[in-house]
Amino acid sequence: MTAFPYDLKAMRRSLHRFPEPAFLEYRTASVVAARLVELGFDVRVGPEIMAMENVQALPSAEAVLAAQEAARLAGADENWMARMPGGQTAVCGEMRRGDGPVLALRFDMDALPVLESESESHLPAAERFSSERTGFMHACGHDGHTAIGLAVAQKLSHPTAAWTGTLRLIFQPAEEGGRGAQPIVSAGLLDDVDTFLALHLGCQLPSGRVALMADGFFWSEKWSVRFSGRAAHAAMMPEEGRNALLAAATAALGVHALPRDGQADTRVNVGVLSAGRARNVIADEALLELELRAATQDALSRLVDAARRVLQGAALMQGAEVEIACQGKSVSATSDVAVCERLERAARAVGLEDIVPNWPIGGGDDATFMMRRVQEKGGKAGYCLMGADLTAPHHAGNFDFDEDALEHAVRLMTSFAEQA
Amino acid sequence: MTAFPYDLKAMRRSLHRFPEPAFLEYRTASVVAARLVELGFDVRVGPEIMAMENVQALPSAEAVLAAQEAARLAGADENWMARMPGGQTAVCGEMRRGDGPVLALRFDMDALPVLESESESHLPAAERFSSERTGFMHACGHDGHTAIGLAVAQKLSHPTAAWTGTLRLIFQPAEEGGRGAQPIVSAGLLDDVDTFLALHLGCQLPSGRVALMADGFFWSEKWSVRFSGRAAHAAMMPEEGRNALLAAATAALGVHALPRDGQADTRVNVGVLSAGRARNVIADEALLELELRAATQDALSRLVDAARRVLQGAALMQGAEVEIACQGKSVSATSDVAVCERLERAARAVGLEDIVPNWPIGGGDDATFMMRRVQEKGGKAGYCLMGADLTAPHHAGNFDFDEDALEHAVRLMTSFAEQA
Amino acid sequence: MTAFPYDLKAMRRSLHRFPEPAFLEYRTASVVAARLVELGFDVRVGPEIMAMENVQALPSAEAVLAAQEAARLAGADENWMARMPGGQTAVCGEMRRGDGPVLALRFDMDALPVLESESESHLPAAERFSSERTGFMHACGHDGHTAIGLAVAQKLSHPTAAWTGTLRLIFQPAEEGGRGAQPIVSAGLLDDVDTFLALHLGCQLPSGRVALMADGFFWSEKWSVRFSGRAAHAAMMPEEGRNALLAAATAALGVHALPRDGQADTRVNVGVLSAGRARNVIADEALLELELRAATQDALSRLVDAARRVLQGAALMQGAEVEIACQGKSVSATSDVAVCERLERAARAVGLEDIVPNWPIGGGDDATFMMRRVQEKGGKAGYCLMGADLTAPHHAGNFDFDEDALEHAVRLMTSFAEQA
Amino acid sequence: MTAFPYDLKAMRRSLHRFPEPAFLEYRTASVVAARLVELGFDVRVGPEIMAMENVQALPSAEAVLAAQEAARLAGADENWMARMPGGQTAVCGEMRRGDGPVLALRFDMDALPVLESESESHLPAAERFSSERTGFMHACGHDGHTAIGLAVAQKLSHPTAAWTGTLRLIFQPAEEGGRGAQPIVSAGLLDDVDTFLALHLGCQLPSGRVALMADGFFWSEKWSVRFSGRAAHAAMMPEEGRNALLAAATAALGVHALPRDGQADTRVNVGVLSAGRARNVIADEALLELELRAATQDALSRLVDAARRVLQGAALMQGAEVEIACQGKSVSATSDVAVCERLERAARAVGLEDIVPNWPIGGGDDATFMMRRVQEKGGKAGYCLMGADLTAPHHAGNFDFDEDALEHAVRLMTSFAEQA
């Protein structure tokens, strides 16, 4: 195999500076698509590989326009964007080398609405590659994932790379809400896949260590909840109000106080609460964004029932109405043993000898929808972790990871592709 | 006295369509200033009559620019706006007729961040004069107050109007929030006033009835509160978070649960709660906008102490930090008997015979700062109410008032000016 | 008039040492009955003057037995107690002096479940007349009221006392929960009364001052609320529980956070919350004792509706059931002008010149049921306050009052009886 | 081996009828001690085998007297009770058969403050062996454990039983609050033990199945929390109160809303909340009984820190004081492989072939203190589960278990003792 000229860290940092949230990854996707073409891949994007019928909570037309405009200013290619209307920002690069199995690798591209730390102890700040889009941040390492995908593309497209069959690189939008994988599955892009692999950096796994399988994927639901009350003058006739803000506050406490489950690990979070418009008016409207997660489908079902009661009861307490809209779901999935074994061989082949069989992902990833589809159709699927020391937990404003992990991940995935 | 050509209802409706919140009343103030000049008043605006040193929570430069731009599109005069920089939107029209006492009348111009009802049962919707600025609304009748002020200006500027001395009409911004009166007081505009009168429509007083004195003005403080916690991935390491959203929710409940006071009527309201940025991140920041009111200064002081404890305790519960910023205060004031008596004569002189000596305002009005200054300097001050049947409580999205009250108020105030 | 040998303070202190809660005033009532007989009154007790059909939440048979046993040990007369079965502890002393109007005076006898302060700064502790029944206390001054009643009885029973007609002294149980007056009214004891007077000590009125009329009586309801959930092992299967404790906690916060009323003063209090049986079991039952008060019947009705929603919503949040039982109600009443005028003459006749026309009682008193009955039947009723400096608010564990007020009150009421 | 005349179910039902809570197991312990003597064991009780120096929250002298009196009425032997002063109700039966290792078996005897179901679908109700002590119940199967212990004692004391060395049967009080094992450990009763075994019925393991090792023991702390506020008249001067009830309610919600831990399973429960004394008094005192559990010592430490903040913050919110007293702790422990292997042989030897290597206990058991001491001193320790279908979760009022499991457990433990 030839040398590796691609500057992984530079690419990661370039992506880090331009974080784009779910279904608005216009600059990122354009960069990816352009590079894949350059490397000789057949590239499909947007509606060619996404079926959006059942996607919940797409960004508004205004938000799409604004994101495209911002991407344009950041140098995104107009032609690629034109092929990704309405938030359909998935990119797929495909290359064939004769007959042989189809290998699909998944990389996610979206960022989070997190305010990045400006502390000099935060490397992106110190080294001047912080987010240029205030209020958004690559706080989960998807900048790294995308850079890894492009590096893998470069290495595997090199004539000397030792693989045959079909290589399919999927750059997915909207992993963080759990909404980006399903439209790609619906479009059939996973139906003929023989082997599927996704990889995540970090997750508390130390630098240099490989986990052959991530486990502990949660089943989850993501809800948007609206409480509708009645406004009133807070001093003259507060008794005429129906306080949506207090309904939401009570509900937020109630959701966090939902009982732990003796049979399965669970998580709950009300991540956003927005209520009221003026200090001297009883708030007539409140919105919650929350998520419920559980290690089993049964426990999620219990949690969903209990959370629904909490929301309805909190509304009733204030004489308010409540609407609950499910904005996304995620499922659990299990890696196939065959993929784990191939990964172990791949790791040892490139000198990654610090290997653990499994490690909890501690959250979710909608790559599980892809894994399940591959498995349903008779293929094998896996999800591995590449260790990377972190400066702070995932999703924190001072999150950062050991950039050496980028090259480890590229070596691992490339080697995986080259294993018989 | 001459006929009354001014179309009060049309003016009120025109103002209703363009609601502007505190310190951003550019279109309204421009219209007022232009009209006063037309009627022959000496007009002073902005810094000429406002001393802004101690004003809290002024709108940002961006907000001012945006408001000016919107006002411009709605026909506001560029020259007037240029004389009202940085949210200094007060307007004063003055007219002298020989020696004699100075009479000051106060009218407030600002609107509220309330979403106006679109129901056909809401007159502004049915008659097509609803707010054209979504999310803002004249939900407290200041559109009526401003229209009344302009009608009073017209009538009293007529050569046949029976008054002497100095007439000073003060059109005040930012009554809601209690921040607009103080800079006008600080600028000295009340220092030489012999008689001061303000009027409010509605307040549950039935149409046609006059209350010679509003009482029950609350002492109040308006706070903005920021909770700062620590973000964390809600599934991987929720235990690393410091949940600012839960701190704010707990605080909101705690503030509303503050004890009633056995010695004085009180009010509390958390009108706005805004927390968190993403569903799967522990919220690291939350903002509350709240107000505390009490019928006596002592009771307000008790409420302030107790609310401070609630906020600090709620922060401590989550290991979060809290900052409390007082954004405005209001004081109580009492009308002078002499003003009430003059009002009674004025009312009877124009056939308003349905008179009550006093009526609770049920809220506050920072005209009290003006009243106190006038009284401190030896003048007499009053605050009266003009009955107006309401469709909904003040500050509700379907608030509206009986427009016949407009003419009653104009007759009353004009007659008041003409009483010896 | 003769000298006044009765030792008021000693009697008050004796009563203070033996506080008895609602409907369990066996020792107190026995002492009262015996003394009235001694003074020549016709004495009726228990079922002779109480109709208990509609009384809510009477003490249990066990509680009555225990109270009687404790009273017996404290020297209560067995014969009197035998005439007061089932908590019927009212006592009425009557004396006739020829024809003439019927004058009824009311005194209340019950104590509170409050733990008395042991501080040396608390007079009963320092002077060794503290409660001997741990957990109960005369924390509202009814020990004083009863002592005053007995002193008034002594003075008016003296041959030289200047009154004619019928004098009826009513010693009432269970004022604190608002349940003792109604059965006496139901029994008809107020039906022929021409003039009725009740008196309360303290209420923030300074020592020596007389308020001719207490106002601000609240309308109220007193509720007992039971939440029923489902127990479960708190570690093994917490998800199987239905947490009644959390329902009650949420409800308590929700009740205290009920909006103030712009039209009437209100009060809310959850005074007792008792939930759960073991630390490692999800609580399956919780009880709340709460009260709702409002200055008007309308506002109480609003409060009742809103509180009901709060309780039902809090139950729903936890999947629990809720039962609400109203345990007592109180009503407002207004003193007749004629009674106030007679009181003023009475006060001045005995040198009590520090007089105010009215003063807020700041709470309630079910003497209002008696007042209303008297007024319905054509009589006149009044409720006055005798000032007494306090060491702490009513119902606090270190509550105490200036004992000089006792004699003031005796003089006032005696003089009232002697006014034509 | 001889026949088995002992009536296991009858003994279990007899014990079920007389449930006694922690450190008050006087009737149970007396029955056990008498039976062990009858079978030829050397019996030590109370202070002979308990060192109480560091025991927290012992029952009061009054509670001990009351429990002894109740036990006496239920037939407990006066002499045994005399040897168990102050709640020291542990019983140890020992038998030697020549030299050889010391085998200790642990059985727990205490019941819970749970109200037993009266439903006919609840077997103890239908078959008339329900709790005769209202408000207490064997809702965790310790009645079964004690009956098993006595049956094991009978079988192993038979001359034909195939074991040598020393057999020590430990009947432990107060397992439920995690306070009974430590004083026995402190007294040295485990110091010379070569092999230790404890067994629990149920825990969601199906009837007939053996789990060689219970895992998932939680680290835990049990707290009693007292909030001290200030009483005040709820209507006259509520603002003077410091509401301990609201502090406790807020704290209860806050504790239940503590974040899940991404690194370890946790549990929280506020099982008891008791606050306030009268409906019309601001509550000046509130008590919480709560427990915190975590799968690791680190996670427990995080939970303890966070809960402390919650309690302090909730107190601060109300201007109240808070005292936190730790009433008990439990630790995790792991069974030794040697014990599991011996158990497997023992199970198969008596036809119990449905075996799983491990099963989550789902809670805690302070037998872990004994296990740790044995292991520290060089011995081997184990904790196994005997499957028993349940009618309801542990600690529920309708908890019951398949009584066939009793004999399975006796066979298993006897066989364990007889394995070389």
From TrEMBL, chains A, B, C, D:
Keyword set includes Hydrolase: yes
GO CC term, one of those recorded: cytoplasm
Limits of the Peptidase M20 dimerisation domain: 223-312
Pfam families: M20_dimer (PF07687), Peptidase_M20 (PF01546)
Cofactor(s) recorded in Swiss-Prot or TrEMBL: Mn(2+)
Cited Gene3D superfamilies: Zn peptidases (3.40.630.10)
Amino-acid positions noted as binding Mn(2+) in the UniProt annotation, renumbered to this chain: 140, 142, 176, 200, 395
Ranges in coiled-coil conformation: none
GO biological process: folic acid catabolic process
GO terms of molecular function: dipeptidase activity; metal ion binding; para-aminobenzoyl-glutamate hydrolase activity
Superkingdom, taxonomy of origin: Bacteria
Keywords: Hydrolase, Manganese, Metal-binding
The record's free-text note on cofactor binding: The Mn(2+) ion enhances activity.
Alphabetical list of InterPro entries matching this protein: Amidohydrolase, Bact_exopeptidase_dim_dom, Peptidase_M20, Peptidase_M20/M20A_hydrolases, Peptidase_M20_dimer
Alphabetized NCBIfam families for the sequence: amidohydrolases
Protein name in UniProt: Aminobenzoyl-glutamate utilization protein A
Organism lineage string: Bacteria, Pseudomonadati, Pseudomonadota, Alphaproteobacteria, Acetobacterales
